[in-house]
Amino acid sequence: MGMAQVATAADVAMVYDIGLRAFLAPIATLLDDASISEIIIIGPDRIYLERGGQLVLSDCRFASRHALAAAVNTIAQFCGKTITEEKPIIDGRLNDGSRICIVMPPVSGEEISVNIRRFSRAVASPEFLLEKKAVTPVALEFLELSVKCKQNIIVSGGTGSGKTTTLNILSRWFDPTHRILVIEDTRELQIQQEHVVSMEARAADVFGKGAVTIRDMFIASLRMRPDRIIVGECRGSEAFDMLQAMNSGHGGTMTTVHADSPLQACGRLEAMSLMANVGLPAEALRRQLALAVNLIVQASRLHDGRRAITHISEVYFDAEKNSYATDDIFVLRPNETGFLELTWTGKTPLLKNVLPLYGLDAAPNLTKELFAAKTPNKNKSK
Questions:
Q1: Residue 242 and residue 93: Cα distance in Å, rounded?
Q2: What is the extent of the structural domain holding 130?
Q3: Domain end residue (candidates: 79, 94, 117)
Q4: Which contiguous run of DSSP H or E holds residue 12?
């Protein structure tokens, strides 16, 4: 009699995946379609798909509410979680990296609600933004110089606006020798570099123990000799620790926030920092924010479904208002044909003062005109 083989983690994952696919058979064609970016389920017979930024009602259906409920329970088990009346909302990640959110009745009304944000296997590149007309070559070079000068960058935008894709693309310009620490609530980023340490938050167990928060991981990351720290999404009190890190030698830190404009993104960071309850006066916090954040890249989904960068704005300290302020370097505007295009505002970026520190003062090519103008206003400082 031969020795019994011990199942590996990969074997277990494969079995779970096969079982999960069986329960999700009604939407198998959608799961296999790489052009679909999100699947939205509202009850057994309303299943929408997002393709090219547009939502369309699909022909897919679950046989019944019970069939959908069975699929949802299987998904929860696959994610290592339990969905109950006491805990009717769960977030998780499927085996292919897709993010999933489930909300059960009565919280979701009469029907089970499921959102599956697809995980793109294609590695985004700077050329991808140009192909999709999400950015212009001049603005793209400005972003490349900003990354290489280790500017602290916030990518702001709404849900599905392309924040994660933009952050992935910015990471392509990291120094390949840098040690990069990536902190996420649910693993989603694809940082294409050699030395990457990825950390993922963990929810508490049924006894309320064992939770690992974004803030826990961020504080730990400061002791792990990072050259750059990337936070997948800033959504709570960790914003305060991040601003402190940015102000204490950890340049090149990046994150995303949910906001509709660069100035609103600053307001969101301020509000989240206040959650840390450190007793810092608002004026002092705003000064810290102005000194910490260099650049805000605003991503939006336009009315035609196109995802585009609408603003690239620098953050500076306004001495007159004793607060942070933003200055738009690029803004989405109609060109001579009426097409919305990211356009230089004519303002000289503060980045001009940083280029020599990184030996990049001779690097500007397409952006020469930006840095050839007069020195920025003396009231704008970092």
A1: 25
A2: 126-381
A3: 117
A4: helix 9-23
